[in-house]
Write a structure and sequence with these properties.
The complex is a heterodimer of chains A (236) and B (780). With 236 residues, chain A is an alpha/beta fold. Chain A has six helices and eleven strands. In chain B, strands 8-10-7-11-9-12-13 form a seven-stranded mixed β-sheet. In chain B, strands 23-25-22-26-24-27-28 form a seven-stranded mixed β-sheet. The two termini of chain B are 46 Å apart. Classes of the chains: A alpha/beta (236), B alpha+beta (780).
Chain lengths: 236, 780
C-alpha cells in the first residue's frame, strides 16, 4: 500500500499530509511533483491544501491543467482512491472529478478555526472506519469554501448519498449554526457517484494528534488504508 | 541633488573622499540608500552596542539576516522581528504583506524553514473619543482591516502559521500605525547559510521576481523621514507583495542549498540589489561585479539608478560555486523561477556595476557598507512632568461594586478578545501549533526533525511592548517589555533563551526622542541580562511621527523559549471544577496590613494612573509605570518553568494588562471549547467560573483588582498537589497565596475585605469580552 501526495507550486499542506500518513498513520507515502505524469504505482492519491499557482485566477483553476492531473484523472476513472483536501477539493471540482464549485466564504474573509463535521455516510473508502453520525472536530483554513451547486446536482448528491460530511455544532443538533462559510446544505465534503473520489474543505491532516487539539481527522486516512487492504484482499 | 537624496553636506563630502571624485547619479542613489537611517543605523549604532548579544546558546548575533540560537538535537532556531510601519500607513494591505514577506525572506535566506509568524500591531483609537474624531476612528478601523488582511493574505498563502503577537491602541498611532512582524525558522545547525561573498570568480546569481520600478527609495525616503500631509503621494514607494512567488522562492532556495553548490545568499529587501551586492561583498572582504543588462526586468527602459534602487519583492542574490552553476540554475528552473548569472565575485573590494558594457557605478564596498556616517545625536531629557494628585486616578470608595467597570474594561479594545483578527490567520498549517492565539501566554510550536519528522522539543514565543509605560518612563517601560515577554514564555512552561527587538521611535533629530531611545536601550540591556535573554537581532524604526508629533516610544520585544518536553506545555484555561486558584508572586507586593497613610495612597494613585483600567475608566494616562524588580521576575519565571516541568499545574496565566481580575476572567473564558465562534446556551454552561477572595490585602479595591505590577501569575492546581506547588514556590522565593476555587456553576465572584466587589456570571462577562472588537470593527 502506498499513498501519493501531489505537490503543485503553491501547495502548502503537502508536508502535513505526508506527515499524517507517514509518521502518524505509519503507511508508505511519497511526493509526486505536478510535472510528473507518473503516479509511481501509488494506491491512493492526496491532493493537498494550499494556494496552487497562488490561486490568483480562481481556486484550483490553473492546477487542474498540471500534467499530473491527466494521470490523476485516469487513475480516478479506473477506480483509484483520490482525496482532495481544501485546495485539493477545489482542484477536483475544477477538474470535473467532483460536482459543484466553491464560492467566497459568506463572510468574505479567510477563516481558520476548529469546526465540527458530521459523518453522513460510512459506506465509502474515506469513512468506513467512522460511525454514522459521528461528529469530528477538524480545523478549516480557507477563503473560498462556500460549496455550491445547482439544484439538480444537489438533488442528485442527496439521492446518491454523496454528501459525506456536513458542518454542525459540537452536539450535532444545529447544522446551520455550525456552518462557517455559507456552504449549501451545510456541505463540508462530497464524493463522486462511484465513491472513489472525495473532497472536503476541513483539514483532517491537521487533526491527527490530540496535542494539536484533535485526532479526529485520522479516521479518514485510516478508512482509506482499510479500504486499500480490503481491496488487496479481494484481489488475492 | 544630494539633499533630495536625504544626504547631508558632510555625508556628501565623505562620499567624495571615498570615491576620490564626485559621484554620478547612480552612485549617489546607492550611497543615499545605504546611508539612510533605515539601512545604516547611523543614529542608533552607538546605543545598540550596549545591548547584551552573547550567550551560551547564541550561534549568530546581530549583523546577519537573523539571529540564530542552538535549540539542541543538532537544530537551530533563526528568528527576527522587523517593522513595516510607514508603508502600512500609506498602503495598509501591501505594507503589511511586504512586511511579512520581508521577514520571512530573512529567515529562509539563512537556510531555515519558517515555522511561525507573530505580529505586534499598534493602531489609533478605533472608536471616537476626545482625542479621536469619528472620521479618524473610521480611518483607523480601515487601516487595521487592511493590515490584518495583508498579514493573513501573505502568511496563509505562503503556508506559515501566524500564531501570536499583540494589538494595542492609542491616539498617537493614528497617523503612524506600527506593524512589526516576527518570523521563526528551523534549520540543522551545520546547514546555516550566511551572506558573505566568497571565492574569487564564483558566479553571482539573481533569482526570483523580475525587477520593476516599485519601491524605489522605500528605505531612504519612506522609512527614514517623518510623515507630512503629502505622504500619501509616496504610495508608489510602497512595494507590492506576491506570496505565491515567495513560496516558490522558499522551496527553490532550500532545495538549491541542499545541492551544496551555494556559497552565500542574501535576500533583496530594503535597498534591493544595492544592499545585497554591497553587503555580501563587504562581509566577505571581496569585490563584486554585476551586469545590469542581465537582471530580469519587468519594465523596459529602466535606468541603472532604478534597477539598483528598486525594492521589488521576492528576489534573492546568491553566490554559487564556480562550475556548479548549472545545478543551482536547474533547481530554480524546476520551480519556474528566473535565475540568471549576473556577475561574479572579484578581488580587491570594489563593487562594479556595469550596464551594457559601460560602468554605471564603481564603489569600494566595505567603506560604503561599514564606514557610513555614525551620529552621536544630541539627547535631552524632557522637562519633568509636574503632576499632583489632581492629575491622578481617584480610587472609588471602599467596598464599591466594581462589576460595571470590569465589564467596560473587558470590552476595551486592548483587553477584548482578538479572535476576530486571529481567525483571519491560518494558525495551524504545518501541524506544529501546540498553543495558538489565546491558548497560552505564549505561542508554542513543536519542532519536527527536518528529515524524520520526529518530535522532540517545542519552542515558545511572545512579543510584548507597552508604549504608554515607555512614554511615562522609557527605561522602566522597556524593562517591563522584556519582563512580560519572558514571563509569558515561562508561563507556557518554556525557559526563555533569547530575544529580538523592534525599536519604534520618533525622529532621532529630536533630543527628547534620542533620550527616550537611549533610556530604552539601557532598560532593555539591564532586563535582558537579568532574565537571560541576549538580544540576537532586530531592527530600529525611527521617524515614526506625523506633522511633528511622535508616537509613544514603543520598543517591542520578542522572547524565544525552549520547552524540553512538548507534552508539558501550559495553557491559561482553567480545567477542573474544584481546582485551587493560587496567586504566585515573585516579590512581596502587598504592603503591610496597617492602614495606608496618605502619602502611600498617593504613591499608589500615581502608579495606578499608568494602568489600562485608569485609561479605560477615567481616561487618565499619567504617573509612572509600576516599579520593576528583575530579581523577583527571574524567581517567578524560574518557578513557573519548574512547576510546568513537574506537571504540577492545571493552568498558568501571567498578570499583565487589566491586572488580576482580567487574568482570572481570561482563564475562565479560555475554558470554553475552542473553535466555536458563538456559544449556544448549552456550551456557555460548560464555561468554568471562579470564586475568589482577596481577603488579606489592604490596597484600595481597584488597585487590588486591576494593578499591573509585574512578577505575578495566576495558576490553578489540583487540591492534592497544592502542598507540593507551594513548596516548590518557596524554593524559588515565590510567595504562593490561595485565592479561591474553580467552579462549575458559571459564577464569577471576587470578594475583597469581606465584600463581593465583582459579582457576575462568566457568560455575561465573556459576552462583553468576546464580541467587543468584532462589533466595533464591523460597524460602519
Amino acid at each position: 500500500m502506498k499513498f501519493a501526495v501531489v505537490v503543485f507550486p503553491g501547495s502548502n499542506c503537502d508536508h502535513d499530509a505526508f506527515y499524517a500518513i507517514g509518521n502518524v498513520l505509519d503507511k508508505p507515502v511519497e511526493f509526486i511533483w505536478h510535472q510528473s505524469e507518473d503516479l509511481a504505482n501509488c494506491d491512493a492519491v492526496i491532493l493537498p491544501g494550499g494556494f496552487s499557482y497562488g490561486d490568483y485566477l480562481r481556486t484550483g483553476a490553473i492546477a487542474r491543467f498540471s500534467p499530473v492531473m491527466k494521470s490523476v484523472e485516469k487513475f480516478a476513472k479506473s477506480g483509484g482512491l483520490v482525496l482532495g483536501i481544501c485546495n485539493g477539493f477545489q482542484i477536483l471540482c475544477e477538474a470535473g472529478l467532483l460536482p459543484g464549485a466553491m464560492m467566497r466564504n459568506s463572510g468574505l474573509r479567510f477563516i481558520c478555526r476548529q469546526v465540527h463535521i458530521r459523518v453522513e455516510q460510512t459506506d465509502t473508502p474515506f469513512t468506513n472506519a467512522a460511525q454514522k453520525g459521528q461528529i469530528l472536530t477538524i480545523p478549516i483554513a480557507h477563503s473560498d469554501g462556500n460549496y455550491h451547486c445547482d439544484e439538480a446536482t444537489l438533488a442528485d448528491l442527496e439521492k446518491n448519498r454523496q454528501v459525506l460530511f456536513r458542518y454542525s455544532t459540537p452536539d450535532g443538533t444545529d447544522d446551520h449554526a455550525g456552518n462557517p462559510n455559507g456552504a449549501v446544505q451545510n456541505i463540508a465534503g462530497v464524493s463522486n457517484r462511484e465513491r472513489n473520489v472525495a473532497g472536503l474543505m476541513p483539514h483532517p491532516e491537521r487533526a491527527v494528534e490530540s496535542a494539536l487539539g484533535s485526532a479526529d481527522g485520522l479516521v479518514i486516512f485510516r478508512s482509506m488504508a482499510e479500504a486499500l487492504v480490503g481491496a488487496a484482499k479481494a484481489i488475492a | 541633488m544630494a539633499a533630495e537624496h536625504g544626504l547631508t553636506r558632510e555625508e556628501y563630502a565623505r562620499i567624495q573622499q571615498i570615491l576620490g571624485r564626485d559621484p554620478n547619479i547612480t552612485e549617489l542613489g546607492i550611497f543615499s540608500v545605504m546611508w539612510s537611517e533605515h539601512c545604516s543605523y547611523k543614529s542608533s549604532k552607538v546605543h545598540l552596542k550596549r545591548l547584551p548579544t552573547r550567550g551560551q546558546l547564541v550561534v549568530q548575533g546581530p549583523g546577519e539576516n537573523a539571529g540564530v540560537v542552538d535549540i539542541g538535537d543538532g537544530l537551530v532556531a533563526a528568528f527576527k522581528i522587523e517593522s513595516h510601519n510607514h508603508p502600512s500607513f500609506v498602503e495598509p494591505f501591501q505594507g503589511a504583506t511586504t512586511g511579512v514577506g520581508g521577514i520571512l525572506r530573512d529567515i529562509f535566506t539563512m537556510g531555515a524553514r519558517p515555522i511561525a509568524v507573530l505580529d505586534s500591531l499598534r493602531f489609533g483609537e478605533i472608536t471616537a473619543s476626545k482625542h479621536t474624531s469619528k472620521a479618524d476612528a473610521a480611518k483607523n478601523r480601515r487601516i487595521l482591516d487592511g493590515v490584518v488582511r495583508g498579514i493573513g493574505s501573505y502568511g496563509n498563502c505562503f503556508g506559515v502559521p501566524t500564531v501570536g503577537g499583540e494589538v494595542g491602541f492609542a491616539p498617537c498611532y493614528s497617523q503612524n500605525p506600527l506593524v512589526n512582524a516576527l518570523a521563526l525558522g528551523i534549520a540543522k545547525k551545520e546547514e546555516i547559510f550566511l551572506a558573505k561573498a566568497k571565492g574569487i570568480g564564483n558566479p553571482v546569481i539573481y533569482v526570483g521576481a523580475k525587477t520593476g520600478r516599485d519601491g524605489i527609495h522605500g528605505a531612504s525616503l519612506l522609512a527614514s523621514a517623518e510623515f507630512t500631509e503629502e505622504s500619501k503621494q509616496k504610495r508608489p514607494n510602497v512595494q507590492v507583495g506576491d506570496p505565491f512567488m515567495e513560496k516558490l522562492l522558499l522551496e527553490a532556495c532550500l532545495e538549491a542549498m541542499q545541492t551544496g553548490a551555494v556559497v552565500a545568499i542574501q535576500d533583496m529587501g530594503a535597498a534591493g540589489l544595492t544592499c545585497s551586492t554591497m553587503e555580501m561583498a563587504s562581509r566577505g572582504g571581496t569585490g563584486i561585479e554585476i551586469d545590469l543588462a542581465k537582471v530580469p526586468q519587468r519594465e523596459t527602459g529602466m535606468t541603472p539608478y532604478e534597477i539598483m534602487l528598486s525594492e521589488s519583492q521576492e528576489r534573492m542574490l546568491l553566490v554559487a560555486e564556480k562550475g556548479r552553476e548549472r545545478e543551482v540554475l536547474a533547481v530554480f528552473k524546476k520551480w519556474g523561477l528566473d535565475a540568471v548569472v549576473v556577475g561574479q565575485v572579484t578581488e580587491g573590494g570594489i563593487a562594479r556595476i556595469n550596464n551594457n558594457g559601460r560602468v554605471a557605478a564603481e564603489i569600494p564596498a566595505h567603506p560604503l557598507a561599514e564606514e557610513g556616517p555614525v551620529f552621536r545625536r544630541p539627547m535631552a531629557a524632557p522637562a519633568p512632568r509636574i503632576e499632583t494628585e489632581k492629575d491622578w486616578f481617584a480610587f472609588a470608595p471602599e467596598g464599591a461594586n466594581l462589576t460595571a467597570n470590569f465589564v467596560k474594561l473587558l470590552a476595551a479594545p486592548a483587553i477584548a478578545s482578538k479572535r476576530w483578527i486571529t481567525e483571519q490567520y491560518d494558525t495551524s498549517v504545518r501541524t506544529n501549533t501546540l498553543a495558538g492565539p489565546g491558548a497560552s501566554d505564549a505561542a508554542v510550536l513543536r519542532i519536527k526533525d527536518p528529515n524524520t519528522g520526529a518530535v522532540k522539543r517545542a519552542l515558545a514565543l511572545s512579543t510584548d511592548g507597552n508604549g504608554r509605560w515607555c512614554q511615562l518612563n522609557p527605561r522602566v517601560g522597556a524593562m517591563h517589555a522584556v519582563a512580560e515577554a519572558a514571563r509569558n514564555v515561562a508561563a507556557s512552561g518554556a525557559r526563555p533563551i533569547a530575544a529580538t527587538n523592534c525599536l519604534n521611535f520618533g525622529s532621532p533629530e529630536k533630543p527628547e526622542v534620542m533620550w527616550q531611545f537611549s533610556e530604552a536601550i539601557d532598560g532593555l540591556a539591564e532586563a535582558s541580562t537579568a532574565l537571560g535573554t541576549p538580544i540576537t537581532g532586530g531592527n530600529v524604526s525611527f521617524y515614526n511621527e506625523t506633522l511633528g508629533k511622535s508616537i509613544y516610544p514603543t520598543p517591542v520585544i520578542g522572547v524565544l523559549g525552549l520547552l524540553d518536553d512538548p507534552s508539558k506545555v501550559m495553557k491559561m484555561a482553567f480545567r477542573n471544577e474544584g481546582d485551587v486558584i493560587v496567586l504566585l508572586s515573585g516579590s512581596a507586593s502587598a504592603p503591610p496590613a496597617a492602614l495606608l497613610q496618605g502619602h502611600q495612597l498617593s504613591a499608589l494613585a500615581r502608579e495606578f494612573s499608568s494602568s489600562e483600567y485608569s485609561q479605560t475608566i477615567a481616561a487618565i494616562v499619567a504617573g509612572e509605570p509600576p516599579a520593576i524588580d528583575l530579581a523577583a521576575e527571574r524567581c517567578l519565571q524560574d518557578c513557573l518553568v519548574a512547576l510546568a516541568a513537574e506537571s504540577a499545574l492545571e493552568s498558568a496565566h501571567d498578570i499583565s494588562d487589566g491586572g488580576l481580575a482580567v487574568t482570572l476572567a481570561e482563564s475562565c473564558f479560555a475554558s470554553a471549547p475552542r473553535g466555536t465562534s458563538m456559544l449556544g446556551p448549552q456550551q456557555a454552561r460548560t464555561l468554568l467560573g471562579a470564586i475568589t477572595n482577596l481577603a488579606d490585602e489592604s490596597w484600595p479595591g481597584e488597585f487590588a483588582l486591576f494593578s499591573e505590577r509585574g512578577a505575578r501569575a495566576i495558576v490553578s492546581v489540583a487540591p492534592s498537589k497544592l502542598a507540593a506547588v507551594l513548596d516548590t514556590a518557596r524554593q524559588y522565593q515565590v510567595a504562593g497565596r490561595e485565592l479561591g476555587q474553580v467552579t462549575r456553576d458559571g459564577s464569577f465572584r471576587i470578594a475583597y475585605k469581606g465584600r463581593a466587589v465583582i459579582d457576575s456570571s462568566v457568560e455575561k462577562l465573556r459576552d462583553a469580552w468576546a464580541h467587543s472588537l468584532e462589533r466595533t470593527l464591523t460597524s460602519r
